[in-house]
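FAQ: What does a multi-protein file look like?

Like this. Sequence, then tokens, then the next protein.
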Amino acid sequence: MGTIRISSEFKKPRVVIDRQAYDDMISIANATHKEVAWFCLVDWSENGEMAFVHEVYLPKQQAQTTTVEIEPEHLAAMLDEFLATYGQNEALDKFNRMHSWGHKPAAIA
């Protein structure tokens, strides 16, 4: 059996949020006193050391004072909207690059 080595050279990726995405996140967070969640597209550098966060999407959700739920049918509706807006290839590409989930707790006003 081979030896398993864990490299101490592992680098945590840097995360870069583009200005428009940042502004959109702040606007969403400031628009409600309830919990709220959103998704963002993420593109990675070739070496995997940098994550570029952009394009914020706010799905339909059930928000309460202390919880937020995004149901499977909400995600399906979001994909349907993507398909209608972007066409199949681009819609699936965007959906598959949604690697960022943002959240604002209700306690942060």
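And here is the next protein:
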Amino acid sequence: MAVIYLTNGQEHKLGELSLKDCEAKLRLRRSHYVSGLNSFPDLTKPGDQLAGYRDNPNVVVLVTEVEAQATGWKAGFYHARCTPEEARNVCGA
């Protein structure tokens, strides 16, 4: 399962979905990769890949090692291109 977070400087777990559901319902793509598993992406740091989004809540998806091995994706954090409201609805939060 992939873990769905809403973030705006702090992360808030919304829920978990299969990676297939993340692709279909949150419009997640492999090209949305942001960083590895070492640390949660920090939207407040200049130069961070998500820095341009820091003023708005963002949906960040964690693809775990287990999920990555099962699907062929890279383990780490991805920036979903859905709205926070869409993610809340999908996760039932």
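Q: Is there any per-entry metadata?
A: Some entries carry free-text notes. For the entry above: DSSP finds three helices and five strands in the chain.
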